[in-house]
Amino acid sequence: SGVGLSVHSIYLLECAPKRLRGMVGVTVATFVSFGKFLAQLLGISEFLGTRERWPWLLGFNGFAALLQLSTLPFLPESPRFLLLDRGDQQACERALRKLWGDRDHSREVEEMLEEKAAQQGIRSHSVLELMRNRSLRWQLLTVLVSYLALQLCGINAVSLVKQRKQRLCKQLRLENLIKTPDKESPPSGRPPRNQRAPAKVRGPGNGLV
Predict the structure, then answer these.
(1) Alphabetically, which GO biological process terms does the record hold (predicted)?
(2) 3 state DSSP class of 104
(3) Comparing C-alpha atoms, which of 149, 143, 148 is closest to residue 131?
(4) If you ran DSSP here, which 8-state letter would residue 185 be given?
(5) In the chain, where are the structural domains located?
(6) Distances (CA, A) of 132 to 86, 126, 138, 145, 178
(7) pTM reported for the whole predicted model
(8) Which of 54, 78, 93, 124 could anchor a disulfide with 14, C-beta 3.0 to 4.6 Å?
């Protein structure tokens, strides 16, 4: 799952046009959140959160992984990889036509070449240099605050408390069922309150019948 998550984001960003690259990049976080919500929804007792049906909930991840593996052979290579790494422009254009339809993709090819030419004169920066760069300070603070808020929001603690609360409620229900006597079945040897005991009748020999 970790490899698929990383490869998915890289492949989508390399295949997406320049104008849609930012929107496509956020699909990873969007579908991760949707997957968590779906898992929480299917995990309640009304659906698959029972002792009899929990294997189906566990196997749901395997079904998604199997679907992903079955569709991978039909996907083309990344156009950027074919053009910039292999230098095969014809294969790049074929991949673009397969992904985005039969039309003229010369503009996309030119944008890839322009990006490659622009990146040749750029050197890699260290983390310390990025922190010292004032032009990137607000972007860096935005990313740090977002990730810190995600880690400190307490979602893991809320999930743990929810599970313990559900277990405690089930235990209390079971104890109440054990302690509460059945109102319909009275104790043995004693008739119900709304039913009279049979009358004692004396027979001819002064014996009780």
Answers:
(1) D-glucose import; dehydroascorbic acid transport
(2) coil
(3) 143
(4) S
(5) 77-122, 126-179
(6) 36, 10, 12, 17, 67
(7) 0.54
(8) 78
Task: Name the β-bridge partners of 202.
Answer: 208
* Per-residue pLDDT tens listing for the chain (209 residues): 566 777 878 888 888 887 888 888 788 778 878 887 888 888 888 888 788 888 888 888 788 788 888 888 888 998 988 888 888 888 988 998 998 888 888 888 888 888 878 777 677 778 788 888 888 888 888 878 877 776 676 666 666 676 777 777 777 777 777 766 555 545 555 555 555 555 555 555 555 44
In this structure, what token pair is assigned to residue 115? 């990006």
| C-alpha span between 65 and 69 (Å, rounded) | 6
- Which ranges of the chain does DSSP label H, i.e. alpha helix? 2-15, 21-25, 27-42, 54-71, 79-80, 89-100, 106-120, 127-132, 137-152, 155-179
